[in-house]
UniProtKB/TrEMBL annotation, chains A, B:
Gene for this chain: leuB
Enzyme Commission no: 1.1.1.85
Residue span(s) of domain Isopropylmalate dehydrogenase-like: 3-349
Protein name (database record): 3-isopropylmalate dehydrogenase
Record text on cofactor binding: Binds 1 Mg(2+) or Mn(2+) ion per subunit.
Amino acid sequence: MYKIAVLPGDGIGKEVIEEALKVLSAVSEKYGIEFDIKKYLFGGSAIDEYGTPYPKETEEACLESDAVLLGAVGGPKWDDLDGDKRPEAGLLALRKSLDVYANLRPAILFSSLKSASPLKDELLKDGLDVLVVRELTGGIYFGDRGTEKIDYGYKAYDTEAYTTKEIERIAHIAFKAARNRKKKVTSVDKANILDSSRLWRKVVNEVSKEYPDVDLNHQYVDNCSMQLIKDPSQFDVILTSNMFGDILSDEASQLTGSIGMLPSASLRGDKVGLYEPVHGSAPDIAGTKKANPLATILSVAMMLEYSFDRLDAANDIRKAVNELLEDGYRTSDLGSGIILNTEEMGDMVLKYLKR
Amino acid sequence: MYKIAVLPGDGIGKEVIEEALKVLSAVSEKYGIEFDIKKYLFGGSAIDEYGTPYPKETEEACLESDAVLLGAVGGPKWDDLDGDKRPEAGLLALRKSLDVYANLRPAILFSSLKSASPLKDELLKDGLDVLVVRELTGGIYFGDRGTEKIDYGYKAYDTEAYTTKEIERIAHIAFKAARNRKKKVTSVDKANILDSSRLWRKVVNEVSKEYPDVDLNHQYVDNCSMQLIKDPSQFDVILTSNMFGDILSDEASQLTGSIGMLPSASLRGDKVGLYEPVHGSAPDIAGTKKANPLATILSVAMMLEYSFDRLDAANDIRKAVNELLEDGYRTSDLGSGIILNTEEMGDMVLKYLKR
Ligand SMILES: [Mg+2]
Ligand SMILES: [Mg+2]
């Protein structure tokens, strides 16, 4: 019995979560996996009820769960609140309290959505399926920083720092993920310049010895930003630091042209994970039934793969999504085809899962 | 009379420089601008003669010049030398001795070379002409760094630091460059996280007040890496730090698909500049007359614009290059057309300049 805390959040978050829960329940039936699923308030909806985006009750439930499934948070209603009282502050608090240090962002281009990619068709012949594994709790985003008055104006600084342990644990997650994929890790750094990158490369090389079945190569970050555009099919898993991962995961997402399709996972070593779509709460389309639930449904697939070790069920969901897209079903954000609303798209996934 | 030190360097560097010098001499005649041009050994060729890639004689000449024109350095002959004795070490020493703190990298897609871009045609309707202005002597590439033994393994760190003065001077270069273009600066930072970025944004906002004719907007670096692919025509001048500029200038270059066409300039405030093609010494094609001289010829155009304030002559060269490409003339790296060798391409630029 796996315990799942579900945080629908705000806007379309609530709508797409409903469809993801239908899929979870279908998977439970088909594979005989039992889930204990409970919903909790989070983000703006929690602010309205408790005055805080991440209430104690929600936190306790998340900490006791095997996985957390999140919709999306935020909206104009809460935009005037102070920084640390806004729905988005709940996201940071949630990630911190779960202590998830690995952010996994797959950039997958489903072949029937090729036309949405900004890249020319000939570059996508071999498809596009890159998983960016980004270190999430270290590096320059959390290092020592400050601003001091000097003779003329100011001097401001930030510190990029990594320890052997921080690099080891994220590297293990990347190599393990590669084992379920094409068995290739590209570690990205700036080792020709940075001390932190030289340590990164050394530790990744060490960890790779435990995964002789996985190929490892190294790329400098500036070269990687070119290679992603020039020849994206060379990549399987990209392993990188917090800052480089922030840039490269967004660049890789954009190559698919369909941000409404992209799931994500944030993990720690014991398989506990937080799963959420990359898209936001889209207040402009909330309530119109136009939201695309597939990113959240694909986040459920990641949950099955990474938290519950059920690659079979995960790939089953992915296959269903791929097939219904091939057959022309779309939500309105995906361009022309047989247009379905949020609920209809959820039902269509169920139908293809049951075929 | 402008003094130009010319450093042909190694490999195809020597070949493309010859063509660039023919263009300089044609410009001198057409516009009545006088140049005092002398060649000096640099890179591998200097190692062979003096045992060092940046000999004293070359340095003295560069320091006395108004501009330095560089071909390219390096080759297999010198690959086994130690790091600080290699041709590439000469590049760092050259930039340092000239004290150039602004690196300007235009990513221009000539409309007749659209097919080389990895981007779909519909994204390039409005062309692609982005100038990345990268801070070159500060930031994390030059900050305090170290690696220390800790209880378990090591901790390594690097420091991203900027002062008001460093940001001011690079901002002025970006705003001035924008005045000769579409009058738009996009400053790229990570001000939602980094102290150095918050100072960056504040100072850029201040400097912008002196350029009321230039529009300024700000983007986070991760968003910019997406926007470059999603909608490259939104950009005119991108102003950013050393590290972000390293990544974004390479990403922007790749969008053109024609690295053999890309010039660069490295400047300081007094208009002294170093001009060089982005491509390397390409030892594999050296001596075959296949080298494309256009990146070096376009570097001469940048020299005319930035060091000699002759936008008219600079644009004349750009127009000539654009027109001969429209008429189907190509070097072999540019795909099919009327294929010219290095010398023939140089002569063709002269012919179009004289029309
Ligand atoms: Mg980001
Ligand atoms: Mg670079």
